[in-house]
Design a protein that fits this description.
Number of helices: 11
CATH class: Alpha Beta
Strand content: 5-15%
Structural class: alpha/beta
Largest sheet: 8 strands, parallel
CATH superfamily: NADP-dependent oxidoreductase domain
Strand order of the largest sheet: 3-4-5-6-7-8-9-10
Shape: globular
CATH architecture: Alpha-Beta Barrel
C-alpha cells in the first residue's frame, strides 16, 4: 500500500474501501470487517449513505488500532450551513463512535457550503477533524472556493475513471495542493469496464484484470481510489494492485478512452440538484 501526503502533512492511503449503496447494517459491517482484514485502512462513508453506525461498529470490532485507520465521512446538503455543519460533525462522530475523523468532506457544492466549511475549519482547529475537503467541485467552483476559504481543502472527491479522466481538473487541484480522490473508479460498471478490450489487453501483459488496470492507472496519476464490493474475493483483487506498474505507453493508450464528460450524473441538471436538496438524512 502506498500513501500520499495531504497539504497539511497527514498521510492518506492511496487506496481505500467505499461503502456507497450498502445501507443494510449487518452487510455493511461485515463488508468493512472483511475489507480491513484484507488490508484496507481507508474507509469512506457519508451521512447520506445511512451506514455510519455500521461502519463504526466494524471499526470497534476490527482489532486494528484506531490510529492505523483513516476514516472519512461527508456533510450532506441538508446541513450545509455553519450551524448545520457544527451539528452534523458531532452527529457523524456519535454515529461512528469516534473522537475524531481523519477526513471530513462537503458532499455536494450546494447550499451554504462556505458557511459549512467555516464550521469544518473550526473543528479542524480543535483537532476533531485531521483534514477537511470537498466533493464534486468542478474546476471553476474549486478555484472560487480555494480563493475564498482560509484553509485550502485537502481533498476533492470527484468522478474519475478511464472514460472521464478530468486531466484539466487534476492540473488545477495540483496547483492548489488538493489531492484528487475518485468516486466511481469503475464507472459504476458502465462501458463494459470489467471486460473492456483495451484494459483487458493491458492487464494481460501483467497478469492483471481490467479492473486492476483501471485502479492502477488512477493511483499512478496520484488519485486516491475507493472501490466498493461486498464480496471478499473482489476486495482482495481490488487491493492487489501494488506489485506492478503501468508503462508510459499503457497510460497513453488508456488516455485514448476519455470521453470528456460524465454519463453517470450531471451537476448542471436542475432536476438532479432539486433531487439532492430534497433528500433528507435526518429529521
Amino acid at each position: 500500500m502506498d500513501f500520499i501526503s495531504l497539504n497539511n502533512g497527514v498521510k492518506m492511503p492511496l487506496e481505500g474501501f467505499g461503502v456507497f449503496q450498502v445501507p443494510d447494517p449487518a452487510r455493511c459491517e461485515q463488508a468493512v470487517l472483511d475489507a480491513i482484514s484484507t488490508g484496507y485502512r481507508l474507509i469512506d462513508t457519508a451521512a447520506a449513505y445511512m451506514n455510519e453506525q455500521a461502519v463504526g461498529a466494524a471499526v470497534k470490532k476490527c482489532g486494528v488500532p484506531r490510529e492505523d485507520l483513516f476514516i472519512t465521512t461527508k456533510l450532506w446538503v441538508q446541513d450545509a450551513s455553519y450551524e448545520g455543519a457544527k451539528a452534523a460533525i458531532q452527529r457523524s462522530l456519535d454515529n461512528l463512535g469516534l473522537n475524531y475523523l481523519d477526513l471530513y468532506l462537503i458532499h455536494q457544492p450546494l447550499g451554504d457550503y462556505v458557511g459549512a466549511y467555516r464550521a469544518m475549519e473550526a473543528a479542524y482547529g480543535e483537532g476533531r477533524l485531521r483534514a477537511i475537503g470537498v466533493c464534486n467541485f468542478y474546476p471553476a467552483r474549486l478555484t472560487d472556493f480555494c480563493e475564498t476559504v482560509e484553509i485550502a481543502p485537502a481533498v476533492n472527491q470527484v468522478e474519475l475513471h478511464p472514460f472521464f479522466q478530468q486531466e484539466n481538473a487534476l492540473a488545477l487541484m495540483k496547483e492548489y495542493g488538493v489531492v484528487p480522490e475518485a468516486w466511481g473508479p469503475f464507472a459504476e460498471g458502465n462501458f463494459n469496464i470489467f471486460t473492456h478490450p483495451v484494459l483487458s489487453k493491458i492487464g494481460n501483459r501483467y497478469g492483471k484484470s481490467a479492473a486492476q488496470v483501471a485502479l492502477r492507472w488512477n493511483v499512478q496519476r496520484g488519485v486516491v481510489v475507493i472501490p466498493k464490493s461486498v464480496h471478499r474475493e473482489r476486495m482482495e483483487q481490488n487491493f492487489n494492485i501494488w506489485d506492478f506498474r503501468l508503462s508510459r505507453e499503457d497510460m497513453d493508450e488508456i488516455a485514448g478512452l476519455d470521453m470528456g464528460h460524465s454519463r453517470i450524473v450531471s451537476h448542471d441538471d436542475p432536476g438532479f440538484i432539486k433531487m439532492l436538496h430534497g433528500l433528507k438524512v435526518h429529521d
